[in-house]
Amino acid sequence: MTEQPTTSNFSKFEEYKLFVEDTARFSDRRQSVSNFMVAVNGLLVGAVALIITNSDRRALYLFPVAVLLLGAGIAVCCAWLKLIRRYKEMIDFRCKQLEAIESQIADSDRMYGKIRKKFGGTNFSDLEQRLPWIFIVLYSLLLIGIVFGVGLLLGYTRIGHVLLRLL
Predict the structure, then answer these.
(1) Is residue 1 part of a domain?
(2) Domain count, the chain
(3) What are phi and psi of 123, to 5 degrees?
(4) How far is CA 105 from CA 1, 22, 95, 97, 111, in A?
(5) Is 35 domain-assigned?
(6) Residue 2 domain-assigned?
(7) Which of 26, 71, 74, 126 sits in a 20 to 30 Å window from 17, CA-based?
(8) Is the pLDDT of residue 25 over 70?
(9) Res 8 pLDDT > 70
């Protein structure tokens, strides 16, 4: 004879299913945000590259636009880092809740508890946080290059030579 689940086990199982679905939605949303941020940063880098490659001494007025775009890119990356941290906190909280619910369900396989013990929690966010930093470093290098390039275009070759010696 098979055992009928009790009402409390049934409601805990339903709660568990809802938490699993909600956690999956949070994870999907985090991925969508990251995809969007990569696209935005790609557009900003592309725009700056276009300005730099198509500018000469007559188009020096475009360099402040490039600097503003680089500043916007750094701001976007800072917001992106904040969003990644926020999603990590929310998903970690949900996983801990799932683990707690699993312990209350009879005959549970305790999947989330096993995953957290084996992998130490959700570490994808830790890897994901490297991408905004890569863009921040890229923006910083481009900014240094623009300042150096404008200095050379304006005839500040002495500054350029000093910078070259430092590098």
Answers:
(1) no
(2) 1
(3) -100, 0
(4) 20, 19, 15, 13, 12
(5) yes
(6) no
(7) 126
(8) yes
(9) no
Tell me: the pLDDT tens digits for 57-113?
666 778 888 999 999 999 999 999 999 989 888 888 887 887 777 777 666 665 655
Answer yes or no: are the C-beta atoms of 97 and 12 closer than 8 Å.
no
Range(s) of the domain holding residue 116:
7-166
- CB neighbours of 136 closer than 8 A, spacing ≥ 6? 74, 77, 78
Is residue 15 over pLDDT 80? no
Residue 101 in domain? yes
Read off the pTM.
Answer: 0.72
